[in-house]
User: Fold this.
Amino acid sequence: MVKRYLMTGMTPNPGGVEAYIMNLVRHIDPEKVQFDYLVNYEEVIAYEQELRTMGADIIRLPGRRKHPVAHQTVYRKFFKNAGERYDGIYCNLLSLANIDDLTYAKKNKINRIIAHSHNSNDTGWDLMGIRKRLHQTHQKELDQYAEKLFACSNMAGWFMFGKNAKFEVIHNAIDAERFCFSQEKRNQIRTQLKISPDTRLYGTVGRLEEQKNPGFILDVFRWLHEKDPECRFIHVGDGSLRGEIEKKIGEYGLEKAYLITGAVNDTSGYYQAMDAFIFPSLYEGLPVALIEAQAADLPCFLTDTISDETKIVEENYHKIPLNGGAQIWAETILGINGLNGGHRAEAVLTIATGRRDVSERVKAAGYDITQAAKQMEEYLYYG
Assistant:
């Protein structure tokens, strides 16, 4: 008998949580477990067509902030009979400021309630500290609702559930072979972007939101571009700060050097085109993009606040304090990559040809999606 779960956490933007969900559901046996998706967006969500092809229903509610009364009306009506339809609910969480999904599931007799933390901090709206107080209050109440607590890292578990909570770490695993370096994909993406083989290409993958620190990324590249006017940058992602960043790109005169792709469902080829990955997030639960970048054997430069649980390819893993500023970041990146002046074209081509297949190292570190999905499938099906 197939078990059916209600999943939360999908949005219109294909970010890290969405990537985790898709990696998971693509590798779980549909003869054992299937999912429907509860979303608070009128827009099409990331991967919606693929999810529908899998047999999923998308339960679309009126937006909580835009239509609060309509949202609650439809929300309560939906949950009234949810206990009869679903074997459980799987809640992917960035904060505990709102735990309606958990409380309504409990009230309406959904038997298995799962809370999965994907964040180690929270910079959402917080008028007079209300959000923080709600998070702390709900943290104390969580054991009344959730049967099982998962977290993408220890840091994410401690933030969401508390230092003394009992939770299980499930890494944001990936299909390592899919991100393994490919010269063919590198050539294809660079041709598509009109970037020559010997041009140094820096990049990142992430939403254009405060947490991902996109303004700082641009400032770092501005220094890199001063050292090498021929270099380029590609930011794979979209978000509410895109207009602000594009304005700043214009002010810096970098319109031809700094490219924002918008939302991308398959990021694998873009990692191949890059020569270095820059990731100065303010905080992270466990960033999927950083795992993918390491799987592509890219030199990675990241904030020192990110958990060492993400360290897989040690020789490519470089933490830099944010308070050092953009210039220090740029100088560190140039120095570590051996690209600080000298023969630019030869250095870039050497970096590309020297990239390796590190998929076995990714798997050995616990980031193999086949193994992680099997572990989750066992729990969801057998309990």
Remarks:
- Residues 176-364 form a domain with the Rossmann fold fold (CATH 3.40.50.2000).
- The CA atoms of residues 42 and 281 lie 28 Å apart.
